[in-house]
Amino acid sequence: MSEIKEVIINSDRLATDEYLVNMGPQHPSTHGVLRLLVRLEGEKVLNVQPHTGYIHSGIEKMCEAITYPQIIHLTDRMDYLSAHMNNEAVALCVENALQVEVPDRVKYIRTIMDELARLASHQLWWCVFGMDLGALTTFFYGLRDREKILDIFEETCGARMTVSYNTPGGLMFDIHPNFQKRVKDFIKYFRTKLPEYDKLLSGNVILRERTEGIGYLTHEDAIAYGVTGPSGRASGFSCDIRKHQPYSAYPFVKFNEILDHRCDTLARYEVRILEMYESLSIIEQLIDNIPEGDYAVKMKGVLKLPEGEFYQRVESARGEFGVFIVSDGKKNPYRVKFRSPGFSNMFALNKMAKGHKIADLVAIMSTLDLIIPDIDR
Amino acid sequence: MTNEELQSYLTGRFPEAEIKQGVQYVEMTVTDVTLHETAVQLKASDEISFDYVFCLTGVDYAENMGIIYHLESIKHRHTMVLKVRTADRENPAIDTVSDVWVTAKYHEREAYDLLGIHFNNHTDLRRLFLEDGWGFPLRKDYVDEIRIVER
After folding, report:
1. Which residues pair with B52 in a beta bridge?
2. pTM of the shown model
3. Which residue in A121, A143, A349, B35 could disulfide with A81, CB within 3.0 to 4.6 Å?
């Protein structure tokens, strides 16, 4: 509140036809508890200041008091739509530090689960993107398909969103005997449903009018602000960690990094839609070839990382996710830092929304696909 | 550049810095006085052009504070780690690099919020997650009064 007071007292800073609006923390389009302090002139946005911390849970501090396998369960709670990728980042980081090589079976299953999680995340994003623009129907179409992925997760590891399926050295359990069949059924099903998404929304005149040329973020700005994931790639910033620093089974598959150089809201929309096709193709390449073998390496009861610093980057559904562990040789880390994609992406909002209408701010924010616990941690 | 080439290039370019090959990345440690100048050169130099900060971490090392920058060059696709330590622990201060890399502005605000590291010349150094009166939770001597971390 202090910023509002400050601006009101310094009345020369606020012109007569300007005013400040608090958007959030309970605004439906912020998808969580993000507060935006928007400075407006009529309907035109002059400045957007994000205010965070409403769901800060001190995860980094908590990590300092628990063991490495326990940390994995906390990472679910940050970006709950990319829970599996976050788990995997910690698992990979610990495995690299201990120089453990996991069996190929683990790599394949991890990658399939990654892509399923990415699909589920993009589907939910598509649901709410439509809804933010006033098209409620997309919500029902998207959730109908996402439900099938969550059912696969539930059968595999007992949880639908906070999966915690990874553990240092492999996976918690082997896949369910039905896994391959159900995933293949899903792909067959979703291949017929994905074009529906385009029919329903992509070609819509209202959508095009509201997204084309809106929220421009140049290639240079995307790099400077560290905007990664589909949002960065829509500005032509080649930032796919799966391509540049491949992990798990990504070196074994062929896929395209979707790049778009139009830099606007529509580009960010289309990159995500095309990424769903790529995810399907990655799963198709792997699902029939899951090698036989163990689903985990036998690890010690108490894991102690050697002294040093370890970093692991993975591609989560909304950008580059990083885990940085500083270890002093004990069973719990000295310092853990999570580089969350939403954190960097969010601060580019002011750059993108300046000069547009307040309704466009909603569309721009929606294509950044922000998850607030991921930002606040 | 490969890590070996990068290491030898950096050794030639920054003779006063301490450079070694870490577990994954080439690690360069500079003093707090030379940090800003080093950052400018790392970004401006065409051969290395580190234009993307993918992580910025503050660490409390009992005797002082450390700040660790993970850098990547989008043009050349090589990565490195830049490290610096503050002179003082109780009132740590260091020059900002937010004028070199924009994203550092927000990561620095986070480091200020959670560790109390003051960044000189930062244009907007405010708390990010916590209230103004709150302590600095990621410091090792932080007293966890409400017992949220250790029960």
Report:
1. B72
2. 0.90
3. A121
